[in-house]
Design brief:
This protein is mainly α and about 160 residues long. Helices cover about 75% and strands about 5% of the residues. A three-stranded antiparallel beta sheet has the order 1-3-2.
């Protein structure tokens, strides 16, 4: 590859990596996507690992995360037994899918925490002092507000699905 094109590729991969890192996303996964996004056609795991100077195993593990987002897909290449992947070039959907997935995961985590906390309070039953009962009631009121926000976020995700 031409040195200037290689420099452009390197700068793009580095920039995407930094951008994703600033949003708390895995830098290496971003690099994998960037390599596939710029490539005109599918790449094998060997080719990707060679370009990024990392192990094939590392590529294999992290490419699955991209596939789960819908950011890449496995493709068949006639005459080859290797695994090949190509990027989903629809950036809008890739980003929306990732955001939706992250939000749904956090909503699930919050729901679990609230349910667990409510069960702990409920299991305390009559063993609470008057002051502890007052505090437990405050907790339950605050959890209710969080659940309202959770419901709003879930509704927003449903609306986003319809709009995009």
């Amino acid at each position: 590859m031409n040195n200037k094109l290689e420099l452009v590729q390197h700068k793009f991969i580095e920039s995407i990596s930094k951008l994703c890192d600033s949003f708390g996303l895995n830098k290496f996964v971003a690099q994998l996507y960037a390599v596939l996004y710029l490539n005109d056609g599918p790449l094998s795991l060997d080719e990707i690992s060679e370009r990024l100077k990392v192990s094939k195993g590392n590529v294999s593990i992290n490419i699955r995360e991209l596939a789960n987002w819908g950011a890449v897909k496995s493709v068949w290449v006639k005459g080859s037994r290797k695994d090949y992947y190509e990027a989903n070039l629809d950036l809008k959907n890739v980003i929306l899918n990732k955001l939706k997935s992250a939000i749904q995961k956090r909503i699930g985590e919050i729901s679990s925490m609230i349910n667990e906390s409510k069960e702990i309070i409920k299991s305390s039953g009559t063993r609470l002092t008057e002051e502890e009962s007052r505090i437990a009631k405050i907790y339950e009121e605050r959890f209710k507000k969080i659940e309202e926000l959770k419901t709003l976020a879930s509704s927003a995700l449903g609306l986003a699905d319809k709009l995009f």
